[in-house]
Design brief:
Elements: H1 6-11, H2 14-22, H3 28-35, H4 43-58, H5 75-81, H6 90-112, H7 118-124, H8 132-140, H9 153-183, E1 186-194, E2 197-203, E3 212-217, E4 223-228, H10 229-260, H11 264-290, E5 296-297, E6 303-308, H12 311-320, E7 327-331, E8 337-341, H13 348-362, E9 375-376, E10 381-385, H14 398-412, E11 417-421, H15 430-446, E12 450-454, H16 458-466, E13 470-477, E14 484-490, H17 498-504, H18 509-518, H19 521-602, H20 605-672, E15 683-686, E16 693-699, E17 702-706, E18 711-715, E19 719-723
Parallel strand pairs: 5-9, 8-12, 8-13, 10-11, 11-12
Antiparallel strand pairs: 1-2, 2-4, 3-4, 6-7, 6-9, 13-14, 15-16, 15-19, 16-17, 17-18
Length: about 725
């Protein structure tokens, strides 16, 4: 069971990612679900969720895209269907029909393209295709949300009667208008509308001469608005018909509600399915924004991410037009804990957060911005201790809080855990805090956990160098400007560049010099050695990169020249063939011309035909010879090619045999050679190393080797004698 605490999710800013995904949803329910995205509870569901997102992401390239999943929420309608005797309005049924049609469209689509979308097809597999509800609703309500005239025979008759009466009203009103206009009883405007009723605009002096009901007058009182008597009678009839029609609509809606009521649970499933689709689609859109891919998910315990970007930083920098630097990190069984050191503002914390956030995103079904050849496993727990976590409510200092957190880590850590700790051991006395941090790290190591931590403590760097499944790393800096390069260098600890950074920031050299005197000389020398190593590594890297670039350019230029040469050679061969063909045609043409002239002068047909056949036979005999010669040439060419290949391969084979023989002889000599007994004062070096040091002390099968700037403890079996101590 995978369980990642909300504290860890907050530390890694995962809610911010969820918020960005929710903004890409097109439904209200989808937005709510996106805000609550959590890591999946087990490996199977995690892989399934990732496949859902990947399939939706890939669907944008196909000719027939996935149907639109947008819908208007029907919570109110679902609530009404759960109340006995309640009636759903026409607008509600229109929404129900729309959501049902959308689900049916998805079911048909995924049934047709099941092979292309196995995960999404399984997502909809629990719902059956059913047109009965949409057919019933569409039978009585049109697509504009109006009740159809033929929804029932009674409603059809009533609406016909209504239209008939409306016609009579218009006819009677027009007749009255014409009559009273001819009498001169009407004002200049002739007619008006009062309370949605057409009325005659009668001059007040003639109001008693017009039969009908007075519905109002003008502000000045000069006009009286009268509905003609005949129109008034038809209006009453219309009101009665419209009332009956409304009652019939209510009856139809009630019957339709009763028909829909058993579908209540199905409609809940429909809404859940489409809102889930909305979240999957939003994850797909987010992957497009951050250039997300699905890395290889492995059951082996490994985390190998190449060219990884922090998604929030990437989007922020993209908006500002700034560059984001990718990181590549590997945690595998023989190198499962990484200690990152180096000066502040170098990108240590961002590297830490990048790994954690990408891991949590992956386990929540979100594609991540890494190289497609990256490989990642699923962790059961992700534990984080990042930032200043002072707790005012509980009266805890930063260090107290971190100790409580460490206690939690010690209880929860196991081989399926990924821990991420920023500024490990800070908040207390450096020496004492460092010792405690070292003990914690040893426990995490013993429990088989995977993790990354950042620190400035030398003892933690030293521990990482001594333990076989732990390694040092540092964030590289420019050796001249001391500006961060935002590149992770694995394999060696990083200097804090404390005094150099202070000098760069304007601290007077006299104060820096006084500070140096207060620190142990050995520690300064050790830190300076690390800094120098980093500078040398930086220069070496730049040189290597430059040489690689030149080598790649030279190789590309060579390939280009070879291609051009090949094309020229081909063209020359084509021209030669064309020239030969033209020469042949000229020769044949000349021959035919000679025969023609000869026939013109002597008119001998038999002689002409004989000469012509002779010419054709000569040409055919040439063709046969050419064909046989070409076959012979081809065989000779193949034979020559085989011989050349054999000549090139033979020395390589012989060299391999010779090297293997020498290696076996050397191994035999080394096995038979008695190993010198080492003693204090002997000058030694590691079997696979170059640096030479002297033995200061030997105890319990280990030697303390002094290299001048620093000392280290090494097993005697790993050392070889360079020079014996003088007696």
């Amino acid at each position: 069971m995978i369980k990642i605490s909300s504290r860890s999710l907050d530390d890694l800013e995962f809610p911010v990612v969820c918020n960005q995904i929710s903004e890409l949803c097109i439904t209200g329910l989808g937005r709510e679900k996106a805000l609550g995205i959590q890591p999946y509870p087990n490996y199977k569901k995690t892989v399934f969720g990732l496949n859902q997102t990947k399939e939706y992401f890939d669907s944008k390239t196909v000719d027939q895209p996935i149907p639109n999943h947008g819908f208007d929420a029907i919570q109110q309608e679902i609530k009404l269907l759960g109340i006995e005797g309640s009636v759903v309005e026409i607008s509600g049924f229109r929404k129900i029909a729309s959501i049902t049609e959308s689900v049916n469209a998805h079911l048909k689509y995924f049934k047709k393209f099941k092979e292309h979308y196995p995960a999404l097809s399984e997502t909809v597999s629990h719902i059956e295709l059913d047109y009965s509800l949409t057919d019933r609703i569409n039978g009585v309500i049109d697509r504009f949300g109006e009740m159809k005239d033929d929804a029932s025979p009674l409603l059809q008759n009533l609406r016909r009667s209504i239209n008939s009466v409306k016609g009579k009203i218009n006819s009677s009103f027009n007749a009255a208008l014409t009559t009273y206009q001819s009498y001169g009883y009407l004002d200049e405007i002739k007619e008006s509308v009062v309370e949605n009723v057409r009325v005659l605009a009668v001059s007040s002096m003639h109001r008693r001469k017009v039969k009908g009901g007075i519905l109002g007058n003008s502000k000045t009182g000069s006009i009286v608005y009268i509905q003609p008597e005949a129109t008034y009678q038809f209006t009453r009839e219309l009101n009665n018909l419209e009332y009956e029609a409304k009652e019939e609509v209510k009856r139809i809606l009630k019957a339709l509600t009763e028909f829909t009521r058993p579908y209540r649970e199905t409609l809940i499933e429909y809404q859940e399915l489409l809102s889930d689709m909305d979240v999957i689609a939003a994850k797909s859109k987010y992957a497009e924004k951050i250039n997300g891919v699905l890395p290889k998910i492995t059951k082996e315990r490994e985390l190998h991410i190449q060219d990884a970007y922090h998604p929030l930083l990437y989007l922020s920098n993209k908006k500002k037009g700034e560059k984001t630097f990718p990181q590549s990190i590997e945690l595998i069984p023989n190198n499962r804990i990484m200690v990152i050191s180096g000066p502040n503002a170098g990108g240590k914390s961002i590297t830490l957060k990048t790994v954690g956030l990408l891991q949590v995103m992956l386990q929540s079904g979100v594609l991540i911005p890494v190289h497609e050849y990256s490989r990642m496993c699923i962790f059961r727990k992700v534990l984080t201790d990042i930032g200043d976590n002072q707790s005012i409510e509980n009266h805890l200092s930063t260090y107290s809080y971190r100790l409580k957190n460490m206690n939690y880590f010690l209880r929860k850590c196991d081989e399926k855990t990924l821990f991420l700790i920023d500024e490990f051991g800070t908040g207390s006395d450096p020496e004492l805090g460092g010792a405690l941090a070292e003990t914690f790290l040893e426990v995490f190591y013993e429990k088989g956990s995977y993790g990354i931590l950042t620190t400035h403590y030398a003892n933690l760097k030293k521990l990482a160098n001594e333990l076989p499944e732990m390694s040092n790393a540092n964030m590289m800096f420019d050796n001249k400007t001391l500006e961060p390069l935002y590149k992770l260098q694995v394999g060696e600890a990083g200097s804090s560049f404390t005094f150099e950074v202070a000098q760069k920031n304007g601290i007077p050299y006299s104060l820096i010099n006084r500070s140096k005197k207060k620190v142990e000389r050995g520690k300064i020398r050790f830190d300076r050695s690390i800094a120098n190593l980093q500078k040398e590594r930086s220069v070496l890297r730049k040189t290597t990169d430059s040489l690689k670039e030149k080598e790649q350019k030279a190789a590309a230029q060579k390939d280009k020249l070879e291609e051009v040469n090949s094309r020229i050679q081909q063209k020359l061969e084509n021209y030669q063939e064309l020239y030969d063909a033209n020469q042949k045609l000229i020769y044949l043409g000349q021959k035919v011309n000679d025969l023609s002239e000869k026939y013109f002068s002597n008119k001998k047909k038999k002689e002409l035909i004989g000469e012509f056949l002779k010419l054709v036979e000569i040409e055919n005999s040439k063709r046969k010879k050419e064909s046989a010669a070409e076959k012979k040439k081809k065989k000779a060419r193949e034979k020559q090619l085989k011989q050349e290949v054999q000549k090139k391969i033979q020395p390589i084979r012989e060299k391999k045999k010779e090297d293997k023989k020498k290696e076996e002889e050397f191994k035999k000599k080394e096995a038979n050679k008695p190993k010198a007994k080492l003693k204090i004062g002997d000058r030694v070096r590691l079997e696979d190393g170059k640096a030479v040091g002297s033995i200061d002390n030997i105890e319990k099968g280990k030697a303390i080797v002094n290299y001048g700037m620093f000392t280290t403890s090494v097993g005697l079996e790993q050392l070889e004698l360079v020079q014996a101590a003088k007696k």
